[in-house]
Specification:
Blueprint: E1 20-25, H1 29-41, E2 46-51, H2 54-63, E3 68-72, E4 74-75, E5 78-79, H3 80-88, E6 97-102, H4 107-115, E7 120-123, H5 129-191, H6 196-233
Parallel strand pairs: 1-2, 1-3, 3-6, 6-7
Antiparallel strand pairs: 4-5
C-alpha cells in the first residue's frame, strides 16, 4: 500500500490557524480533481466548493464567504482575469486570497493577474505540493492580515466620524452659549465693580472657546488627511479590459 509522504512547511511560513474555505473556478472536472488531490498531498486543511463557470462563481460568492479562490484562466464563459475582476469588487471577497492557475507559456497572463491584485499563480502542468503549500499558506495569511488592517481602518474612520460629529455639535451649540456668557460677564463688569469671580468665569469661558475651536480644526485636519490617504491608496484594474 502506497503512503503519502508528509510535506514539510517552508521556512518562515506559518500554517493557517483554521480550516481554509476554498472555491475552485475551473470548467474541467479532471483539473479540479487534480488540484484538490495536490492540496491533500500538501496536507492543507481545506474545505472545497467548485464552480464550473463565471456564472456559478458569482452565485457561490453571494452564498458563502471564501478564504481562498483558485481561478483557472480558461473558462467556457470568460477568462480568469474577468473572474478576478468580479472577485476583487465583491463586497465579501475583495480581500480574499486568489491564486491564478495558468498553463505553461501563459507568463503574460500570470503577470497581468498579479498586477490586477491576484495573490499568486501556479502552473497547472507543473503543480508541486511544496510550492502549492507555500503559495496557499502565504496567500491566505496575507489576505487575513489585509482584512485585519481594513477592519482597523474602518474603526479609525468610525472614530473620526464621531469626532467630527462632536466637533460640529460643539460649534453649533457650545460656541453661541459661550459667546452669550462672555457678553453677560462683560456687561456685569462694566456696570459694577470688577469681580474676581467674574474674571475667573470669563477666563474659563475663553479657555473653553479655545478648546472647542481647536477641536474643530483638529477634526477638519484629520478628515483632510484621511481623504488624501484614501485617494492615494486607490488603484486601477491594470491593463485588462473591464467586462461590460
Amino acid at each position: 500500500m502506497n503512503q503519502t509522504n508528509p510535506i514539510s512547511l517552508p521556512d518562515g511560513v506559518a500554517p493557517p490557524r483554521d480550516a481554509i474555505r476554498a472555491l475552485i473556478v475551473d470548467d474541467n472536472k479532471i483539473d479540479r480533481r487534480r488540484l484538490k488531490a495536490m492540496c491533500d498531498r500538501a496536507l492543507l486543511n481545506i474545505s472545497f466548493q467548485e464552480a464550473r463557470s463565471l456564472a456559478e462563481m458569482k452565485e457561490a460568492l453571494n452564498e458563502q464567504r471564501f478564504d481562498l479562490i483558485f481561478i483557472d484562466y480558461r473558462l467556457d464563459d470568460g477568462d480568469g482575469l474577468t473572474a478576478l475582476y468580479h472577485i476583487k469588487r465583491h463586497a465579501n471577497h475583495a480581500n480574499a486570497a486568489t491564486i491564478m492557475v495558468a498553463g505553461i507559456g501563459q507568463a503574460e497572463i500570470a503577470v497581468s493577474a498579479l498586477k490586477s491584485g491576484c495573490s499568486d499563480y501556479v502552473l497547472k502542468d507543473a503543480l508541486d505540493p511544496n510550492w502549492l503549500k507555500r503559495s496557499v499558506t502565504t496567500a491566505v495569511e496575507n489576505a487575513r492580515l489585509r482584512s485585519q488592517i481594513n477592519t482597523s481602518e474602518e474603526m479609525r474612520t468610525s472614530l473620526l466620524s464621531t469626532l467630527q460629529d462632536f466637533a460640529t455639535d460643539c460649534k453649533e451649540e457650545m460656541k453661541p452659549m459661550l459667546s452669550q456668557m462672555l457678553r453677560h460677564i462683560r456687561n456685569r463688569r462694566s456696570a459694577e465693580s470688577d469681580s474676581e469671580a467674574d474674571a475667573a468665569l470669563a477666563q474659563s469661558c475663553h479657555q473653553m472657546w479655545l478648546f472647542v475651536d481647536g477641536l474643530e480644526r483638529s477634526a477638519a485636519e484629520m478628515c483632510r488627511a484621511q481623504t488624501e490617504t484614501g485617494s492615494t491608496a486607490e488603484t486601477g484594474y491594470g491593463d485588462h479590459a473591464r467586462p461590460a
